[in-house]
Amino acid sequence: SKAKLFDEKNDIKVTFKDVAGLEGAKEEVQEIVEFLKNPEKYTSIGGKIPKGALLVGPPGTGKTLLAKAVAGEAKVPFFSLSGSDFVEMFVGVGASRVRDLFKQAKEKSPAIIFIDEIDAVGRARGKNNFSGSNDERENTLNQLLTEMDGFGTNTNVIVLAATNRADVLDKALMRAGRFDRQIYVDLPDIRERREIFEVHLTPLKKSENLDTEFLAKQTPGFSGADIANVCNEAALIAARKDKTSVDKQDFLDAVDRIVGGLEKKNKIIS
Ligand code: ATP
Question: Which residue in 104, 168, 164 sits closest to 141, CA to CA?
Fold first, then answer.
């Protein structure tokens, strides 16, 4: 059987209200939502709809979530794949995979293509990467550039890509008419952490009115993904103790556990 080339979702339910904080980034992608909802409004007076935007920021800050919310808000199909998947491809498959992806997206336009971890495929060309698959990676990257250049003004497909390593990307990707917009998705500040807690506390059965300001204070340096993790971990800790609701102590235990995990991870990296 043929390996799955990419993921296609036609009924994304994620909207901006699921994305806490990130006001600046949301404002920037709001414009993309408008283009996708009503492309003719822009093209009929000769405007060129942007082809791509790069979402740049640390892991777990909501880049994928934000890209999905764009598709959800605009009610358009969401095609996604991960740059790291390309690296595992057989020779020649990466480029044809890209071709296929763009063909499908154009047929269903307006649409969003989302490429996670674009740095895996979009590293500057001609540099040693010791992986032995450099040629294949370059072919894939070249095909991506070719596809984006080949977009007409009425293609109505917008490519969003995510990376936490914008510094290693091939400058060709950032040229006009490609990923010429960069949108920063940073770690949340205390107010944003509070908002993220509010989102992820909603589905939990809570035993008291949990103070989100307190929780935000306990979690400096945490990403949105870390906070989602804390909330789930707290629920699991409570359930393990046969409680029927989650309390403050469960959250403190969950924070400790996540901090322990993060410290281990950082030790391995450094
Ligand atoms: P990576 O760089 O590791 O791929 P990412 O920036 O794409 O990470 P997401 O995959 O979007 O991060 O985030 C993972 C999960 O963390 C989300 O599905 C969501 O549950 C939670 N999350 C992250 N950021 C936010 C946010 N701003 N608001 C609400 N939830 C968030």
Answer: 168
Asked whether 58 lines ligand 1 (CB < 6 A), one says no
Q: Which atom of ligand 1 is nearest to the CA of 185?
A: 6
Structure tokens at 133: 């698959």
Q: Is the CB of 20 under 6 A from ligand 1?
A: yes
Q: What is the pTM of this model?
A: 0.91
pLDDT band per the 50, 70, 90 thresholds, residue 267: low
Residue 177's pLDDT is: 87
Q: b or e along 80-109 (b: 16 or more beta carbons within 10 Å of the residue's beta carbon)?
A: bbbbebbbebeeebbbebbeebbebbbeeb
Per-residue model confidence as pLDDT tens digits over 82-98: 888 776 666 667 888 88
Complex-level ipTM: 0.97
Q: Is 60 annotated for ligand binding? A: yes
pLDDT at 112 (0 to 100): 97
Q: Is 63 annotated as a binding residue?
A: yes
58 annotated as belonging to a binding site for a ligand: yes
